[in-house]
Amino acid sequence: MRVRIDLGYDGSRFHGWAAQPGLRTVEGELTAALELVLRHPVRLTVAGRTDAGVHATAQVVHLDVEEESWRRLPGRSDRSPQDALRVRLGKLLARASGEEGPGDVIIAAVGEVPGDFDARFSALRRAYSYRLDDGEVPGLWNRRRAWRTEPVREADMEEAGALLLGEHDFLSYCKPREGATTIRTLEQLTCHRPDSGEDAGLVRIDLVADAFCHSMVRSIVGALVEVGRGRQPIDWPARRLAEARRDRGVILAPPHGLTLERVDYPETGYGLQARAARRMRQHSQGARVALTPDGSRQ
Amino acid sequence: MRVRIDLGYDGSRFHGWAAQPGLRTVEGELTAALELVLRHPVRLTVAGRTDAGVHATAQVVHLDVEEESWRRLPGRSDRSPQDALRVRLGKLLARASGEEGPGDVIIAAVGEVPGDFDARFSALRRAYSYRLDDGEVPGLWNRRRAWRTEPVREADMEEAGALLLGEHDFLSYCKPREGATTIRTLEQLTCHRPDSGEDAGLVRIDLVADAFCHSMVRSIVGALVEVGRGRQPIDWPARRLAEARRDRGVILAPPHGLTLERVDYPETGYGLQARAARRMRQHSQGARVALTPDGSRQ
Predict the structure, then answer these.
(1) Considering only alpha carbons, which residue of chain A is nearest residue B106?
(2) What is the pLDDT of residues B192-212, one digit of tens each?
(3) Residue B108: closest CA among chain A residues belongs to which residue?
(4) Closest CA to B16 of B52, B54, B59, B46
(5) Is the pTM of this model over 0.80?
(6) What's the rounded Cα separation, in Å, for the pair B80 and B86?
(7) ipTM above 0.85, yes or no
């Protein structure tokens, strides 16, 4: 049976999501904890692979669990298997972190899902946030998740960002992978300076796309900050986009300002969405054809 | 010459302030970084020793620096020695943290102070905050610095806390040290649930005293939470205080909810304040006499 886990993490001390021998990774820690609790090998599929230092408040993974292990989970408690798994994973991960308190991974929810649910390919869209701190005295916690920059004009950045919206080949803003397209649909990009809430005093950039290529958010943010500081004109990021080439002009914003905030899935029809997304993202470079009946990504 | 350093830290990964062989401590990391930059041995005096897991946004230390080292600090840059030390320490500490981004220690300010400034004994008062998270879905960052509790009534906690204000022997809420008094003046204790700001949704307890004994804030918070959950009547923490004895009734709130927020110093007369504070805190247990001309702690 298939299980979905929603989790969050402070990426500061992780070498990213993907398991690597000898390095502390979120996938590595989570897999080890799951195998200890479930007593069988586990393979995780993730919604958004994050780089070293990148945070997530709402990452999603799926895995397949043997019926026998699932039934055994509650032990002698009156908990559901879901609750038992959530609580035991939380404790193991907190202990493994070597920190006081809850550690740097949080298990937010555990649930059973249909067998065609795919954490990666069933996703409709991903939302990321990027925080800048261009103020005088950065707070302790802000500083750990915001890029410290010279003062920026967030209105200029939003204007520059708006020119990137829509379906484009984002090659200028991606590290391309062999045999994978760099065409994406950027659905939303906003820059604002919240007056209240936990981001008060910071500049927050919010981006939503069907999916993001590797390093896409950080490259876009790097370009927008050049505009915000007045070093480049407002149409510069869009001109770079139009060139559709990977060159040394790429400015990569540091990872610690970036957070995966949300992954959206359809209400039903996971398998349908997964087949469409697989087809789209795996076609060869430059095949810029409409791949869904209405030519859109959703 | 005497130098004052203001710093903040996320205590999650530190075994507290005080240097301990083989363990990662704030004092240990800061001393190592200072000795690398200054090229002479360094001894730190701190305003508030914090336990493992406790955070600080405004910790204060002093140290003595050799004139020659101080003059050499700017190197060929046009920075002041203060700025040069702040920037170099920040970089060394970030690198030593092994994290992406700014690391878990922040050097907020470096400055020259008069030779009679004492980070510990010249302080007039310390302010600590303690955060509780009694909500449904804790945020990632809140969770790392708040104690997760059952729902509490913050008004009851504030009422119970008000009964502790003033000068008392806080033995019931302290781990006493040989030859040191446990008499302190609790100047302020408030509990509220901020509507906005970075603590929105949390319950925040703010405490101010001339100084706090070891584990005093966490013991007081532990007692207040018993009241907040309705397990003890409102006058229970005050009754425990009046008993003035250390027993198994102590409930120690976990360290990760606690943050040192502020240390206040007089405008001038550091030495005078330091002599008065030393006399007061080091007199023997129970010598409950007025130690300053007007009988107050400030």
Answers:
(1) A140
(2) 998 877 788 899 999 999 999
(3) A137
(4) B52
(5) yes
(6) 10
(7) no
